[in-house]
Amino acid sequence: MDQVERARDLTRLLLAESIPRRWTHSQGVGRKAESIANLVGNDASALVSAAWLHDVGYAPDLVVTGMHQLDGARYLRDVANADDLVCRLVANHSCAFIEARHRRLLDELAGEFPPVEGLLSDALTYADMTTSPDGEPVEVHGRLAEILARYGAGDLVAESIREASPLIIGSVQRVSALVTGA
Ligand SMILES: [Fe+2]
Hints:
Blueprint: H1 3-15, H2 20-36, H3 44-53, H4 68-78, H5 84-92, H6 96-102, H7 106-112, H8 118-129, H9 140-151, H10 156-180
Helix pairs in contact: 1-2, 1-3, 2-3, 2-8, 3-5, 3-8, 4-5, 6-7, 6-10, 8-10, 9-10
The protein binds fe (ii) ion (FE2).
Fe (ii) ion binds near residues 25, 29 and 55.
């Protein structure tokens, strides 16, 4: 079984029954990543695997710190023996460093999972931030507005996303330009 198949099966196992909407979202993000995987060359398999797995840290059994990016990455590293690059992508997806700073977990996040730079990081952010909670394609501004509304003003996740918005939009725009050939 290849890396992507394993990632998809593990995500289904962790999310499909316990939090089915996250499973639906993850399927959309995995499909979106597959559609742009040609942009990242040899890292295609890591990108698509991380896209499937990016939200497994929401699984109730995996919650330790409450920061889903870090909890998910630690599970993948310590229990699932996932590829190092996949763990780093999951840990840092969609500007996680900002939420980590708000949670006073930035030293742990950055120390355990060094950030992934460049197009590979942009591509995962693009896949996540152009996919709705129900797994449908969505425009990034609508996606960000939905997150802010869902968590509510003052919530730590909402404030982190608000702060990250310019960076997220930049990532989406860079990948969109490559996708459309603009
Ligand atoms: Fe997501």
